[in-house]
Structure formats: C-alpha cells, structure tokens
Amino acid sequence: MKNIQELENQYTINTYNRQPGLTPCLVRGEGSYVWDTGDKKYLDFLSGLAVNVLGHCHPAVVSAINEQAQQLIHTSNLYYSGPQAELAEILVENSMPGGKVFLANSGAEANEAAIKLARKNKPGRYKIITFEGSFHGRTLATVTATGQPKYQKPFAPLVEGFSYGIFNDLESVERLVDDQTAGIMIEPIQGEGGVYVADDSFIKGLRSLCDREGILLIFDEVQCGMGRSGKLWAFENYGVMPDLLTAAKGLGGGLPIGAMVVRDKFTDVLQPGDHASTFGGNPVVCSASLAVLRTLLEEGFLTGVEDKGDLLRQELEKIISDHADLGYEYRGRGLICALELKKPEAKNIQGRCTAEGLLINAIGEHILRFLPPLTISKSELEDGLKTIRRIMVEFSA
Known about the structure:
Blueprint: H1 4-11, E1 26-30, E2 33-36, E3 41-44, H2 47-50, H3 59-69, H4 82-93, E4 100-104, H5 107-121, E5 127-131, H6 140-145, H7 149-152, E6 162-165, H8 170-174, E7 181-186, E8 189-190, E9 196-197, H9 200-213, E10 216-220, E11 244-247, E12 258-262, H10 283-296, H11 301-322, E13 327-333, E14 336-341, H12 346-355, E15 358-359, E16 361-363, E17 367-370, H13 378-396
Parallel strand pairs: 3-15, 5-6, 5-7, 7-10, 10-11
Antiparallel strand pairs: 1-2, 2-3, 4-12, 8-9, 11-12, 13-14, 14-17, 16-17
Helix pairs in contact: 3-10, 4-10, 11-13
C-alpha cells in the first residue's frame, strides 16, 4: 500500500512547496501541539497559518461542531439559518454596530465581496488602491490586489483598476487617488508580506483621505484580526473605523469561513443577485465561529494575548541582540510577529526547527514568521523560544 506522500505526489497538483524529508504528515492535534504519523510531537508556532486561534481541537469548538452536525449540516442560503444569524449579530455588535455582514468561505472571497461593493458603491469609480508587499488572496481579482509581482506574472493580463501605494507612505497614496478611485484596501498588519505594522499616523491619514475624497477604506484583517494583535480587530489599535472589514482564517477556528462586515452607511449597496455563496454561512462552520468568538470575548482573554505577545517580542528582541551577526529586526504586534535575518537562512532555520519539533514559517530566505495559537501558555512559548535560541546559535556560529 502506498504511503500518504506517495499518494499525494501521484494524485495532487503540486502547488505547495513542501520540503522533502522534512515536511511531516500531521494526524492529530491538541492545544498547542500536533503529532505526525510516527507519533512525533510538535509545538505549533504557526497554528495553521493563523487559523487555529484557540489551538487544536478546542473543546468549545469541537462541541459546537458535533452538536450542529447532528442537527443540520447544510441548507443553502435560500433559507434562514439560526447559527448564521447569531454569528452575524456577534460579528456586527463587536466590530461595526449598526452594520451588516456577508458570509463566504475564505478571505479571498471576503475580499472579492469588498472589491465588488466598492465598485458598485459609486458607479464609474472602479479603481482600488492597495500596497506593495500586500496579500489579499489568489483569485484573479485578489491576486491583482496583492502587491507582489511574483504572484501575478503567470496570470497576466490582470484585472484592470488596481494600483499600489507604498506602505506607511501617505503621499504615495495621495498621488494615486483620482476621480475613478473607489476605495483603498489595506492590511493594518501585513502578514504574508513580512509582518509590517502600519503606523498610527498612516492609518489616521488614510481615514482622512478617504473621507475627503468620498471613497471607501477597506481593512483586510484576514490574518491580523480575530484577536491576533491583542485586540479583537487590529483597527482597534488605531482608534479608526474602516468602512469595510474582511475576516477569515481564525474566524472558523479551523473550519473554512470568510466574512465582510459593512458599516451602516453601505449596507444597502449590494442587492439580491449582486453576490452570493453556496456554502457561505454554513451552519456547522457558523456554530464553530460562534464558539471561537465567544471564547475570545471572555473577560481577560485578549489581555492575556497582549501579555504573551509582549513576552514573545522581548525574547525575540533578545535573540536578535545576542546574535547580531544573524538577526536583523523584530516586527509585529501581539501574537503575529516576524524575525528578519541578515543572512538568507530562514528556510534552513525553519527546517531545523521542524526537525527539533517546532513548527514555524519562513517567508522567503530572510524572514521567520510566528503565529502561535492565542491559547498558548507562557511556558509553551518559552519552550519554543529555547528551541529557536539553540538553532540560532548553530547558524550564527
């Protein structure tokens, strides 16, 4: 009988750059840990690319899934759904009171909905400004919105109407605005681009610019939302309200879901027939999402995320200081952060960490990204940091 890797190689299109001999096949998870087919244990500092915000198989999420799956798994959006309505309520009331939600299956789909809404909001305005280094998805429109040519070149010609400002440079954005601009889409914390955090003055400047020009400010919080920054939403760190907010990844606690939350002024832009999703708002996924949000909103939970984020920042900064020949810079907020290296060793360090039972992520050759579960304990964080220190010593030497 063929093993899992052989089956994958034979039958699955190779779109994921796994490391032969180093990439484990994971079969079980609990809390901050996962196990592979050989029963090797790994501490997870990646949480499924920011998806498993409550860790693996959190009891509240598992219970919600089991309970709903025994009642009703799918109906379609031709009918009303209790879990969908309850999720919409908790999302709106804890982000944009007075607004409304569109539910989809992924962050890319949520961003597609935001792009369509921005274009329809003012007929004749169709241009969207995004940013160099951004990542908004892999559909044709969202890969065009993504300000990274390496993702775009194979799929030209791209969708018309997108241009790219310089992150944290307000003047570069102002130069791009014209009478056909519909909106500005930004990740308050660029995740896949290398964990770059937007400056407070920059975000406030974008809000003022959008108000002045009568265009929409769209926050893509697919990766940096859902408590990861230490606030439920990253925009809360700036005291600025976007017009549209997109969320996904951690929203489902491991199940696929995306959401676009819309401020009250724009809730009637999309009408029946303008947009839809067969699986969007699926009752099982919505039940899981409700469990995730209720847990994040428990008293003291997000304060704990901030505390653990401070610990991670302090220790990574110390690692950089101790290995100045290799480490260059810490970037991040809360439990989304990166360590940039002077030497092109990120993928090699990722491989060594995997071999030592720690899952992290290399972005290119110079950046290590850390996205641990929000439920991770301080002792688990310290265990992972010990592994990173030990491996940094090897590469520094």
